[in-house]
Write a structure and sequence with these properties.
This protein has 361 residues and is α+β, with helices and mostly antiparallel strands. It is built from ten helices and 19 strands.
Length: 361
């Protein structure tokens, strides 16, 4: 991350300080620390006062921080993070009130209050709101993460064999991403057959059969940014009900994606997908239709029946409707989409057709 980009983000954050009547913020969220500093390590905080920023870390990460954080004053802590922050604040006597992220645990907040004798204001989404609009570089990173995921899945599919387990598939997927200098964006969801009806099934010992179905929900990481996609396909023969359900999910996803544009309400995107399934005899899914992604796999905005707000240009979102029949099968199709001033752009590998992919092994 460049020094110029960090300074731009700090300037945007400083404007929010004025709106919230605070002098700065203690940042404890790992993703928010990364966004403001460029640091990709862990167990570190950032202290922001106006447009100045300090990264508080320890000896494990000092060398890394010096490389990744060109605009930060790096503090290698000798005591706790809260005590190091207190030292800095004692030298900045004009600071009266600090923002604290509402994602901080009660234990962390108690430690902050113990060592820093100032007024505090709990804030929600102060930095996350800035993160929702992606820069060109952030989009490039998400696209690269998507390409790594695609290449990894292609390799695993080429090695699929009858008798392999869901855990085998998930492990091979992780290995292929590692080979491409990446890691899994989250624990992969791999479902064979009837396990697909469990939306967030954990891969287990279930073996792949000669005629079977596969649902895989996964993503890769590139420079801290994540891709998120779900693919459902068949092995060998497929019954007509499954094929019809797949066609319905594909149509539901297309309806939602076609509607994506700046200014469209989040609820309308959600409704567009659900309405397609409501016209069939299949059950409508219970989860949201999509979410934002970036440094975290789930970020603002969220598209659901209770969502509020509208899409903005620069947001990277997912669209992932599904149909789940307990004890029989589950189908979900998910792609990553960029909201643009002119409409939208699909960031994941575009399917040439919505037809169900059938693999022979």
């Amino acid at each position: 991350m460049t020094e110029q980009l960090i300074k731009q983000r700090l300037a945007s954050l400083a404007a929010k300080f004025k709106e919230n009547q605070v002098d700065g913020i203690i940042v404890t969220s790992t993703s928010n620390v990364s966004y403001l500093t460029g640091f990709m390590g862990h167990d570190s905080w950032a202290l922001v006062l106006g447009r100045r920023i300090w990264l508080l870390t320890d000896s494990r990460y000092t060398e890394q921080a010096k490389t990744e954080c060109p605009a930060c004053k790096i503090i290698q802590r000798k005591k706790t993070l809260a005590e190091e922050a207190a030292k800095i604040l004692k030298r900045n006597k004009s600071v009266n009130k600090l923002a604290v992220e509402d994602t901080a645990t009660l234990a962390v907040f108690a430690i902050i209050k113990k060592h820093i004798k100032l007024k505090f204001k709990k804030t929600s989404g102060l930095i996350e709101t800035l993160r929702t609009i992606k820069s060109d570089d952030e989009i490039v990173n998400i696209v690269k993460a998507s390409k790594i995921a695609d290449a990894s899945l292609d390799q695993v599919i080429a090695q699929m064999r009858v008798g392999m387990t869901e855990s085998d598939f998930a492990g091979m997927l992780d290995y292929e991403m590692r080979k491409r200098n990446s890691i899994a964006a989250f624990d992969a969801i791999v479902c064979f057959g009837s396990n697909g009806s469990r939306n967030h099934h954990f891969p287990g010992p279930r073996k792949l059969k000669k005629n079977d179905t596969v649902l895989v929900d996964f993503g890769a990481v590139y420079k801290g940014y994540r891709s998120d996609k779900t693919r459902t396909f068949a092995v060998g023969k497929v019954n007509k009900t499954f094929a019809k359900a797949y066609e319905t999910v594909a149509a539901a996803q297309a309806a939602a994606i076609d509607l994506i544009a700046e200014g469209v309400t989040l609820k309308d995107i959600d409704n567009a997908a659900r309405d397609v399934i409501k016209e069939t005899l299949f059950p409508v899914y219970g989860h949201g239709t999509g979410h934002g992604l970036g440094l975290d796999i789930h970020e603002q905005p969220f598209m659901s029946p209770i969502a509020k707000g509208k899409l903005k240009a620069g947001q990277a979102i997912t669209v992932e409707p599904g149909i789940y029949i307990p004890g029989k099968f589950g189908i979900r199709i998910e792609d990553d989409i960029l909201v643009t001033p002119a409409g939208h752009k699909i960031l994941t590998r575009t399917k040439k057709s919505p037809e169900l992919k059938i693999i022979t092994i």
